[in-house]
Amino acid sequence: MPRPTVARIDLEALRRNYRTACQRAGSARVMAVVKADGYGHGISRVASALADLAPKYAVACVEEALAIREAGLAQPVVLLQGVHAETDLTNCAERGFEPVLHSEQQLTWLSGSRNRPRLWLKVNSGMNRLGFHPGELASVMQRLDRAGALATLEGFVTHFACADDVDSPMTARQTEVFEQATAAWPERMRSVGNSAAHFHPGQPLYDWSRPGIMLYGGSPMIGKTGPELGLEPVMSLEAPLISTRMVPAGESVGYGASWVADRDTRMGMVAIGYGDGYPRHAGTNTPAAINGQRIRLIGRVSMDMLAVDLTGAPDAREGDSVELWGRTVGVDEVATCAGTISYELLTGITARVGRHYL
């Protein structure tokens, strides 16, 4: 019998979060970002669950786009990182993938390719990761025209660096830079809106928005949890309680003896650890839940198990299911305790954790 450590995926919650994104996007159409294996939720099942809602998907690379086609879905797929080889352009043209071009090398490949996919250009509006500088756009457009590829250009994209912080002026500056850079081509579509941008009052999202983490119930905003933003958790990470014991005052639990009981404490061991993707840095006082009652972790997370204080759940017994995050304990709460973000936690769940779809 397999170990009952599972990630339960609520596909109806996913669909409701997508509708929330649509409401917040206003007149913009909404492409569903399903990269990183659907943020750890399973790209095929996630994309299929959104098939009658999402007119377009977005992923990072060709491999992820191919997984969508293997699921039998025909919607266009935007490749946010573009292509990594010239031969990928033919694949894109034949399969309806839309690469985002951001480099000189990619332009050179496009010029030499006979097959021209629909494509986007990335504008570096200030994040300084990928994209063409605004001053380069005119020459890039001329090159596309000479190569006969201008007719396949969908439009322009950029990415915000500080949209998670509503008090940062950088999002407004990047928006202004992007608008000025693309003003000469008003017939082309534009896309700027990551999840966080959906929660900026008055922020234009133009023609296409690109929600990611918000579809899965995680918060894209500093100081806010998903539920506080009207989002529903999609993943419930659960593992069995496999042992309980009394730890006398003065004795320790786990590696490094990092937690010492200050009183006699009923302790339980849970069959999940960093080998399953649960964060090792989530230490003492990180919340969990059992039978709807909130409890806390104690000591260090091991590879295959972790310890919890059962004081808050006196009726808990071996075999009960412990929620590591879900509807009782938010993934954003756990992320804060572990010094990270919900994106990392959701995408980090390993293959030995089964996905059960609701």
TrEMBL record:
Residues 234-358 form the Alanine racemase C-terminal domain. Belongs to the alanine racemase family. Its EC number is 5.1.1.1. The active site is at 35 (proton acceptor), 255 (proton acceptor). Substrate binds at residues 129, 303. GO terms for molecular function: alanine racemase activity; pyridoxal phosphate binding. The keyword Isomerase applies. Its cofactor is pyridoxal 5'-phosphate. Catalyzes the interconversion of L-alanine and D-alanine. May also act on other amino acids. It holds the Pfam family Ala_racemase_N. NCBIfam families: alr. The keyword ATP-binding does not apply. GO terms for cellular component: cytosol. It comes from Marinobacter gudaonensis. This is Alanine racemase. The modification N6-(pyridoxal phosphate)lysine is found at residue 35. It catalyses: L-alanine = D-alanine. SUPFAM superfamilies: Alanine racemase C-terminal domain-like (SSF50621), PLP-binding barrel (SSF51419). GO terms for biological process: D-alanine biosynthetic process. Keywords: Isomerase, Pyridoxal phosphate. PANTHER family: ALANINE RACEMASE, ALANINE RACEMASE, CATABOLIC-RELATED. InterPro entries: Ala_racemase, Ala_racemase/Decarboxylase_C, Ala_racemase_C, Ala_racemase_N, Ala_racemase_pyridoxalP-BS, PLP-binding_barrel. Pathway: Amino-acid biosynthesis; D-alanine biosynthesis; D-alanine from L-alanine: step 1/1. It is an enzyme of class 5 (isomerase).
